Amino acid sequence: MSVMVRRRIVSRIAETLCAGAVLLALVPLALILFYVLRQGIGALNIAFFTEMPKPVGEPGGGMANAIVGTLILIGIAALFAVPIGCVCGIHLAEYPDTKFSSVVRFAADVMNGVPSIVVGIFAYGIVVLPVKRFSAIAGGIALGLLMLPIVVRTTEELLRLVPAGLREGALALGATRGRAVFTVIVPAALPGILTGILVAIARVAGETAPLLFTSFNNRFWSTNLGQPIASLTVQVFSYAISPYEDWHRQAWAGAFLLVAIILTLSILARLSVRGLEKMNRP
Amino acid sequence: MTKIHVRDFDFFYGASKVLHGISMDMPDKQVTALIGPSGCGKSTFLRSINRMNDIIPDARHDGLIEIDGKNVYGGGTDAVELRRRVGMVFQKSNPFPKSIFDNVAYGLKIGGMRNRRQLNEIVEKSLTRAALWDEVKDRLQTSAFALSGGQQQRLCIARALAVDPEILLMDEPASALDPIATAKIEELIYELKDNFTIVIVTHNMQQAARVSDRTAFFMLGKLVEYSETKTIFMNPKQKMTEDYVTGRFG
Ligand SMILES: Nc1ncnc2c1ncn2[C@@H]1O[C@H](COP(=O)(O)OP(=O)(O)O)[C@@H](O)[C@H]1O
Ligand SMILES: [Mg+2]
Q: At residue A269, does pLDDT exceed 70?
């Protein structure tokens, strides 16, 4: 057999294996989407989005309070994780080699690996225990702690992608270092930083464990940040383990909504990365 | 009249010395070209004049650079202030990811200018001086990235001109451009020297001969020969210079 033929065969086999691997990775995603949708479609109606849960045992009703609750929890999380995370990320990108930076970077990486339930316990200890009450604030802080390291590291990495020529151009025009960072470098990386935030939100939107003993759950309408609040994930969890057929359907619908939200966020994130790449290719 | 006065200037990146005792005087409102094989220290020298090398860790210098008799590295000189007086155009054009207008207005805005009419006026004047106004006047608010390579480089020149510097440093400003865009830049340099002192690095011998009044030939971090451009190309004193400008090595 000639070398050429052997090469072609080997290459064909490799290609097939690669394509197979890609399929294997995509199939579960498609199956999950399909299965969740099929199970939940019966409960996905207007009422699901607009109505409150019905009393135990009564069919119908919806998850309006849980949907709003999730939005509030994510809002609280972003409100404190985004500013702190961005400032830390900017610092890491600007002063990459200082002792302080390596400590911050290490801390962020460790935090990124801490199981979410541990973060929940931590928030329970510092926010819930002192006032002896579950609250939206506690849940938001738990989610924010999970977001923080992601925002820090993406901000750092994306700022570093900004071509060095832009910084030099700004300095050569008489910008101070700080001025160059905030008027040229951060704006150039902004779509990317936004992506990092979206990815971080997508990551925490599906968290259940850290909410179980921070924001807990609430069968009633509540936007009070000092009170327990409903969330999609905890609601799905408690409906899924309930004995009621109708609640199971609603749990599937809630799960589908979660997947849809996370998928949308991920797609938005991809699109804005593409925007960044276009900008950096003058 | 001397604008830039350099005496015994050495430069080090960490332990490696890349400039050795450079001494030369560059005259006011003339074009000085720096030529020499790549890696001989032309960019390093150019970036020493506006202290762009300050941002490189472990870099240091020895010797003196004066502009109008004032020590560039002296205690009384602020690097940020200095760079407003000594503009720079880079080899790889580096427009900001902003509109054409905001690119040109950038230096003015960070300098504190807010008056819209004044900004408009200077942006137009700078773009006109950079021979770009007619091509962009109808789309000042579009992204600078939509411009061609040559236009982007002229935009960077306009951006540097807007803060009204006295000196313009250009590091191979046309090396990435096609011949037509290059010709435009050269024409521009010729016109700009009425108002600015220009120092240009180029690896293109014909370009040095066309645009410059004086030429300095660098080799391995040393200034081999510096005089009238005519002399350097027609009647060089050093054998090394002659070999280089006639293309016998390089
Ligand atoms: N940031 C840097 N750190 C270390 N060495 C550098 C740096 N920049 C340039 N050099 C070295 O300094 C020498 C001169 O470089 P440069 O001034 O860019 O030359 P030229 O512009 O003439 O090609 C080269 O040997 C180059 O490798
Ligand atoms: Mg160079």
A: yes
Note whether A202 and A164 are same-domain residues: yes
How many structural domains compose chain A? 2
pLDDT at B178: 87
Query: Which of residues 147 through 166 in chain A touch B, CB cutoff 8 A?
Result: 163, 165-166
Q: Whose CA is nearest to atom 21 of ligand 1?
A: B43
Check if A188 contacts B (Cβ < 8 Å): yes
Q: Give Cα A152 to chain centroid, integer Å.
A: 13
Interface check for B94 against chain A (CB to CB < 8 A): the answer is: yes
Q: Which of A177, A179, A282 is facing B95, going by the closest CB pair?
A: A282
Return the amino acid letter for A181.
V
B165 has a chain A CB within 8 A of its CB: no
Secondary structure (H, E, C), A51-108: CCECCCCCCCECCHHHHHHHHHHHHHHHHHHHHHHHHHHHHHHHCCCCHHHHHHHHHH
Burial status of residue A156 (CB atoms within 10 A of its CB: 0-12, 13-18, 19 or more) = buried
pLDDT band at residue A282 under the 50/70/90 scheme: very low
> For residue A261, what are the domain limits?
44-280
Q: Are residues A88 and A196 in the same domain?
A: yes
Question: By the 8 A CB rule, do B11 and B18 touch?
Answer: yes
> B62 near B9, Cβ under 8 Å?
yes
Q: Are residues A24 and A122 in the same domain?
A: no
For the segment B185-211, the average pLDDT, to the nearest whole number, is 93
| Yes or no, beta carbons of A175 and B90 under 8 Å apart | no
How confident is the model at residue A191, as a pLDDT?
Answer: 83
Residue A255 is part of a domain; what is its CATH number?
1.10.3720.10
Residue A135 DSSP symbol: -
With beta carbons less than 8 A apart as the criterion, state whether B56 and B248 touch: no
Cα B171 to ligand 2 centre (Å): 7
Which residue(s) pair with B62 in the sheet? B10
pTM of the model: 0.84
Q: What is the CA radius of gyration of chain A?
A: 23
ipTM topping 0.85:
yes
Q: Is B219 close to ligand 1, i.e. is its CB under 6 Å away?
A: no
